[in-house]
């Protein structure tokens, strides 16, 4: 590992390079194995147990900390989490392996053979790049996080393809020879909380913008404002089983289309995925039409990418009012880009009428969804006091200017769907 910087940027729940070295020693591996059996034990008792046999308090605490991180990491990394080291911040910010693998395959397919990962964290993206056959320079300002990335690369047998550098992204980027592509996934957490303002990213937005002229991929928060996106970049929103997990800007020769929604379905952590993509320019308006028998609620990636019009075209749908992204169709359609409902009853929106309708249908379990209307679903559910044996979905929206409640049932998800 190369050290090109002084002190790092100081992450929360940090791990030091010394702890990484300690955990990778034989005694460290034994302590980790022992700690894995104690993750659900009270912390003090677990540390006490680990200290028996002469382990230092530092080793016992570090091993238990890692064992607990690995347990949490299993949600994102699957069984593979047990081989990796993490930091608290690094785990929270790490790209899901399925998303990282997809990005890496796209870079490799574009002919890239070398990538500089300017904010590598614990190395989830860097590992995916290396697995896709790319040579990786992985940079992180935090020495402990960089040490974790280097340890993970070594554990996975990828150390010959991943060189880890401790340093500031901007400084390292200035010094590295040109060639290959740049990937940057800036820190979007500060003081243990998420930051939403790109100016508060680390490195900041200004630096990220300086990368957009060349072959670069930038990972951003899904809430990024379209108005901030420079002309000529591709903005891709990615969702995993219905949750929008990131926006990625593909820059320079890597840009394909103005806007892309990528929907990954059927993805238990760490396993292969089904993916579907919808593309467009993100500026079209969907046609407005009457209420029809089926309602399709676009996936968050489609909504964020402003591709509702493209989805409307693909499924023969229309919206009920400009700017309100529920799509209506006459026929049932199989699409990975939306969740479908069959509408059973249409009511002008009124709590009293809705309560009566639910009572008449003996509905006790209500799922409330809303679009284009300001209401608090929990407060509405409390006012409805549902108490029957059945279940229903209520979608509250505006149709041709009128607040409307739709009683519906969800259509079965398409095979492999969310
Ligand atoms: C969002 S995480 C990267 C996660 C990584 N892509 C993964 O999937 O594991 C951002 C990382 O950037 C690092 N960082 C923040 N500011 C930096 C800077 N100016 N230069 C280099 N690294 C920086 C943080 O220490 C953190 O580890």
Automatic annotation (TrEMBL):
It comes from the Bacteria. The keyword Repeat does not apply. Keywords: Methyltransferase, Transferase. GO terms for biological process: 7-methylguanosine cap hypermethylation. Residues 338-410 form the THUMP-like domain. One of its GO terms (molecular function) is methyltransferase activity. It holds the Pfam family Thump_like. CDD domains: AdoMet_MTases. The keyword Transferase applies. PANTHER family: S-ADENOSYLMETHIONINE-DEPENDENT METHYLTRANSFERASE RELATED, TRIMETHYLGUANOSINE SYNTHASE. This is Methyltransferase. It comes from Actinocatenispora sera.
């Amino acid at each position: 590992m190369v050290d090109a910087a002084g002190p790092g940027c100081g992450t929360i729940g940090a791990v030091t390079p010394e702890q990484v070295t300690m955990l990778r020693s034989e005694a460290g591996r034994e302590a980790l194995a022992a700690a894995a059996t104690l993750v659900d034990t009270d912390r003090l008792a677990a540390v006490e147990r680990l200290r028996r046999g002469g382990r230092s308090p530092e080793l016992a605490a570090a091993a238990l900390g890692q064992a607990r991180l690995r347990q949490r990491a299993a949600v994102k990394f699957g069984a593979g989490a047990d081989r990796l080291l993490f930091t608290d911040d690094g785990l929270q910010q790490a790209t899901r392996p399925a998303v990282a693998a997809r990005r890496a395959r796209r870079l490799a397919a574009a002919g890239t053979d070398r990538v500089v990962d300017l904010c590598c964290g614990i190395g989830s993206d860097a590992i995916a790049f290396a697995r896709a056959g790319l040579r990786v320079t992985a940079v992180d300002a935090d020495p402990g996080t960089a040490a974790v990335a280097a340890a993970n690369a070594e554990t996975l047998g990828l150390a010959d393809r991943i060189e880890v550098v401790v340093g500031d992204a901007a400084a390292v980027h200035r010094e590295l020879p040109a060639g290959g592509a740049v990937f940057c996934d800036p820190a979007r957490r500060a003081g243990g909380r998420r930051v939403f303002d790109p100016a508060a990213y680390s490195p900041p937005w200004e630096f990220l913008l300086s990368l957009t002229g060349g072959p670069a991929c930038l990972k951003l928060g899904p809430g990024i404002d379209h108005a901030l996106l420079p002309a000529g970049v591709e903005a891709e929103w990615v969702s995993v089983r219905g949750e929008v997990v990131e926006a990625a800007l593909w820059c320079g020769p890597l840009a394909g289309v103005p806007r892309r929604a990528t929907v990954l379905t059927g993805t238990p952590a760490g396993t292969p995925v089904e993916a579907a993509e919808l593309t467009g320019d993100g500026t079209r308006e969907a046609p407005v039409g009457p209420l029809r028998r089926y309602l399709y609620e676009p996936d968050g990636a489609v909504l964020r990418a402003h591709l509702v019009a493209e989805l409307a075209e693909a499924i023969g749908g229309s919206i009920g009012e400009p700017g309100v992204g529920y799509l209506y169709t006459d026929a049932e359609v199989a699409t990975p880009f939306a969740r479908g409902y069959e509408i059973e009853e249409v009511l002008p929106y009124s709590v009293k009428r809705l309560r009566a309708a639910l009572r008449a249908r003996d509905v006790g379990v209500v799922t409330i969804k809303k679009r284009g209307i300001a209401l608090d679903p929990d407060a509405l559910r409390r006012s409805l006091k549902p108490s029957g044996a059945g279940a229903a979905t209520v979608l509250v929206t505006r149709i041709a200017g009128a607040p409307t409640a739709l009683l519906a049932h969800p259509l079965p998800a398409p095979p492999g769907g969310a």
